[in-house]
Specification:
14 helices; mainly alpha; MetI-like fold
Length: 296
Amino acid sequence: MNTRTIKRGWGDRTFSVVNYILLAALAGICLYPMLYVIFASFSESGLLTQHSGLLLKPQGFSTSAYAKVFKNPMILRGYLNTLFLLVVGVFCQIIMTSVAAYVLSRKRVMWRNLLMMLITFTMFFSGGMIPFYLTLKHLHLTDTLMGLIIPFMINTYNLIILRTSFASIPESLTEAAQIDGAGHVRILFSIILPLSKAILAVMVLYYGVGIWNSWFWASTILRNRESYPLQVVLREILLQNSTTSMTTGVGAGDQESVAATIKYATIVVATVPILCIYPFLQKYFATGVMVGAVKE
């Protein structure tokens, strides 16, 4: 069987080469800050402070910064608090968002369009930060981890994506289940959710990354340092220079250089878990974007 190949012209080849060069440069620009932090965290503190310019490899090699980071009880406590928020928060968010999306995706729901319009309205206008805080205080949700879960169980953008996905499932499946006597709860958990695994993976990633990176409301409503999530602990170390407990036993002249490597190691410790999970769910991003773009 003869196959005919199309020869690419000089212009096409030049265009491809330029694209590859630009994409490689862009990838380098995006990757270098992360590599800089990793190299700096494994560097010897004295050599790092003497170095100037680009950092393309660790200056020496030392893991003492990581040893000091893990000796800080607030790091481990912050990890536990963040894991609690991640597990409980994502579970509640997926359940509540799925229930709301299922209701709004049913065509026979009364005032469905009006409800969707009012929900979408909240994406552009809100009551403001102070009324929101006063509401949390009135409901006794301040200074508790549940105050970071209950008010944020449904994200409007994620709700719209999930609603569109549920609406794309053929109604014949749900009608057949109703004929067999299945109720809405059974239909949601036995038919709709199993058919929406890809979009649910996207929701888990969206909500999980949001919880892992959130620090503002945690630093606003939490007063007990034992309840701080990891990102608040990280912010305290980076912005308030709170590394005294991790530089004990170090000479006064070396504390500043040691503190620098500790900060870099803390960033790596706080970032690596989510970076390890991200690639496994990244393939579902295209599905999530396409489902959200489908017109009902």
